[in-house]
Amino acid sequence: MAAAHVIRNVVFDVGGVLVHLRYRPFIEYLSEAGIDLSDLPSWLARVDLAAHERGEMTGEELLARIGALARRPLDPRDLERRWLDMFERADEMIDLATGLMDEYRVYLLSNVGELHWRHLDARYGFDSLGHGVITSFRVGVMKPSPEIYREAERRFGLEPAATVFIDDLQPNVAGAVSRGWSTVLHRDHARTRRQLEALGVRVPAPRREE
Predict the structure, then answer these.
(1) Are the beta carbons of 97 and 12 closer than 8 angstroms?
(2) pLDDT tens digits for range 18-75
(3) Does the structure show a pLDDT above 90 at 14?
(4) What is the DSSP letter of 4?
(5) Does the structure show a pLDDT above 60 at 2?
(6) What are the domain boundaries of the chain?
(7) CB neighbour class for 27 (10 Å; exposed up to 12, middle 13-18, buried from 19)
(8) Alpha helices in the chain (DSSP H)
(9) If pLDDT is split at 50, 70 and 90, which confidence band does 210 have?
(10) Contact assessment for residue 7 and residue 166, using Cβ atoms and an 8 Å cutoff
(11) Alpha-carbon distance 10 to 140, whole Å?
(12) Fold of 9-20+88-198
């Protein structure tokens, strides 16, 4: 269905959209060290990943909490390397984001901690991709809280009706909808292209074979 308003701003999530997330090797590494991950949401709450991604805890502090739960000593450098080594560049989606910059304002909006973000920026240059970036650890609030979408509107001058947000998690999409943004629930590159086109976005031709 065509959009009721002309889209001028395209906002991308990062993890699960611009990079693929490969958690399994890290989870297996921790499990082999005797950490019980049978209830992953409870474990994430125990180490307080959310506090880290709100900028209330450094990456070093987070990894120290994780390491303290192991039944055998973990090499801190190896733990950090494995923590960072869970991303794979989503080439088609990054090409889409950069291709849209010719006609649209393109922004990134990510729930992320400083350790992962430093790694992602060093590897992929995300801090300078598009026309602006908001990361949860810098602003102290996370999706799907309305405050992070309001901060994006304030900082970048976004008109909600002229903005589309692409994220792989339904709660984050719902948070953007509550602010009056159009949204795309990302599942794969081809589907996201089709949904953008349905919103009236002029999507550039893909640079690589589908």
Answers:
(1) yes
(2) 999 999 999 999 999 999 999 999 999 999 999 999 999 999 999 999 999 999 999 9
(3) yes
(4) S
(5) no
(6) 9-20+88-198, 24-84
(7) middle
(8) 24-32, 40-47, 49-53, 59-68, 76-84, 91-100, 114-124, 136-139, 146-156, 170-178, 189-198
(9) very low
(10) no
(11) 22
(12) Rossmann fold (3.40.50)
Q: Omega into 204 within 30° of 0, i.e. cis?
A: no
Both tokens of 110, joined, read 């990510």
Beta bridge partners of 19: 15, 89
Q: Which amino acid makes up residue 148?
A: I
Sign of torsion over alpha carbons 39, 43, 46, 48: negative
57-96 burial: b if 16+ Cβ within 10 Å, else e? bebeebbebbbebeeeebeeeebbebbbebbeebebbbbb
At 141-198, the pLDDT tens digits run 999 999 999 999 999 999 999 999 999 999 999 999 999 999 999 999 999 999 999 9
CA distances from 41 to 22, 88, 195 (A): 17, 23, 31
The whole-model pTM stands at 0.93
